[in-house]
């Protein structure tokens, strides 16, 4: 280990020496080792800067920060500390937080006070208006000063007016102004003086009048006035050119040095005077402000100068400016002159498919043939000019944002989040093989449908050859084949038709009244204790199994006890369907119309009113309400239901409500979970108490396979048939990954059971996934007929979200489909991955709700212990966080390192999200939200 340590230290020394050479021009490894030793003696970045100043190292501050970040990321000492911390998986200390802040300063910007969206940026506008007003005043004063200086040298308007003859002047003026009469010689001298003075005035006036250019001259600098402003640029009216001539300055040509400008309105205002340089002339005039000093008018790009007549003539001779060649052009030297008397078409040559389409249009009468006189000649004409495709030169901007300097993916070795504990283990290999087998099954099904469509095809050539046939008989073979395939795709599979042929019912069928149903729930016995616990504590963790009544009963108990008198009782759900169905059920129990005392809010649908006291909503909607009201003044109690699912919105709400709880001591927060990992929630929420609702649980026998299964779908179906044929009565629950897999399993299982004959007991096949209609989902709650058994094939929704009575057998292949984000590619992908140990235990518990049951795990016990993570990875650590960070920035939260996530997301994902937001102009160069970013946060983007 010491040798590896020394090698890593040598690599770090070499890297630091390179950085010093690039920035300071000193090539000395001893100096690099000295700087590394100074860093080891410094606990903070400020201490490191201080030590460097003490020894006389006058480095720029940005370079010192870059060195600090480099040593922190590459020094083996800090790497080992990080590895030890990962093994302990404990709470992050202050030193570790400071180290992260030094490595990623772009993630530790100071927070800002929250502002509502309608007031966002008003302070900036006021400052900008003041600056613009003061600038206009300064410009006006400078112009007046210039006028005062030039007044003595500049002639007035009277100087250009011819003097009136003495005969036409009033006598009064003559009497006052005229001197005494003189002799004839004196008169002639005065006439000569007057003529000389007039010539001087004419010359001086001619010199003072600016000459106007007929058209804008390339690379000449003009004064101009801003006439119009758009986001992409500004339109400038040029002075010194005949007529009214306007050009455009693009935003990329405004800021000196090529700085980033989000909008032209940030720099310019209407009627503002500017100095511009003409960069291109033609049909559109392109102007530049960054090439001209706006104060002095100095040309900042003198290499782009106005060309003389001799230079233009030389270019015309050489043809270097794409000008027509002169005498030395074609034929000037060889004597061979091209005969251009034949008409040359400058239009684009038509392609063969375009020519065919035009001929079809002419034949149908839709287009006149006279519009295309040379339709065929155009193709055969050797002199027709083929259109040359213009070459596009795409320049990729690789500039890093200033607040992310040295932290983006160009300088960091980004890697995707590890969502599988053992990538080479048997479970992950089975998941990969399952994906390829599913693809093969899909292709086989498609091939069978194609063959069946081909077999039903008939001879289509006869109606086209028969002159007496009707138009309806003339059909194309491809159209008929497509219709047959469409009919096959629309047909209901036989297994589905037999399963859902009876009258559909909604929900569980029961003879109990609503009051008796409420009293039969496990939570009813603990009503008083629960209410008292909520009164005594501001934050409470409630743990109870699915079906105990947490979601529907707690809100009613608290409303009955008066908690809704001073604010609403809000309850979040991770799924839209759950929020709607629970609100409907609670409204029935309360005895009101949905939307009055009890309502719900989901995206694009708000079913509430001013009288609403109990409000169910998705966690994303509550997060958006935090954007408008960070202190949650409209609520007295907030319940975060199904918190164990750890969606992104739920994790963000954890951090936001933690802050809100300190600001509002009267706000009650309840976090409910169906799993036993409640200690983590309690530790996070200031070690708050845990209230446990005991559920109806029975012992479950767990059975493992002896060897890994290569095809888990086939093994699942074989296990189901063995249970059905050899085990005592009891329903079966099978967990699969998605809709396509579930439909395939139902079809194969139905065909296999049908092949066994009528002697085998009936097996009802019931799928459950989110895309299934509600009436079909409700069939899973119906008890199986006498002598029959039902098998429910479901996604992971059946782990905690729904409780099905009568389940005694659970078949667990051990896989789930998850959404994973790769920051290197910047893309999300749905991948089949092994489940965690907590999910496996939760699935096994489904078999012990009604009585003692069995769980068949289609993987080995070694794989359960070594290849499964203890708990599932939260969504916030494996998904794209661009929208989440945009919401946090809109709330004024810029310090993402110290925000207080329960499980902090990887720094790579955060940096990639910040880079994407900067590229979309949602963030400025300082990492703060722009106006566009604030508008983006207001919309669900």
UniProtKB/TrEMBL annotation:
Its EC number is 3.6.4.13. Residues 120-138, 186-209 have a biased composition (Basic and acidic residues). SUPFAM superfamilies: Nucleic acid-binding proteins, P-loop containing nucleoside triphosphate hydrolases. Keywords: ATP-binding, Helicase, Hydrolase, mRNA processing, mRNA splicing, Nucleotide-binding. It comes from the Eukaryota. It holds the Pfam family Helicase_C. Residues 219-290 form the S1 motif domain. GO terms for molecular function: ATP binding; hydrolase activity; RNA binding; RNA helicase activity. InterPro entries: DEAD/DEAH_box_helicase_dom, DEAH_win-hel_dom, DHX8/Prp22_DEXHc, DHX8_GH2-like, DNA/RNA_helicase_DEAH_CS, HA2_WH, Helicase_ATP-bd, Helicase_C-like. Residues 531-694 form the Helicase ATP-binding domain. This is RNA helicase. It comes from Rhizoctonia solani.
